[in-house]
Predict the 3D structure of the following.
Amino acid sequence: MDKWFLGLLTVLMIILAVCIFIALIRVIKGPDLTNRLVSVNMIGTMVNVMIIMLTIYLQEEWLVDVAMLYTAISFLSVIVLSKVYIGVYKQKASEASAAENKAEEEAK
């Protein structure tokens, strides 16, 4: 491969590493759970891109299989986190509704 192409891949991987770090900060400090969930998904996507870039850089074809497996795991983790978030939201809503009903009964 050309030397400039390998240099370009190196620069792009450094930029992606910085972006992953910024997304990790968003996961930690996110204002709410949905922003954190999107940031986790972004990190998964950027790591997958880095694995594919490493496949090109190192000329190792087996890393494509690793990238495909990582994509599936990343997708499933976002689905599981979404289900957990929906469950917590429904539980809070039912508790608030029960507390509201109890307050109405006491007012009567």
Q: What stands out?
A: The first helix runs from residue 3 to 29.
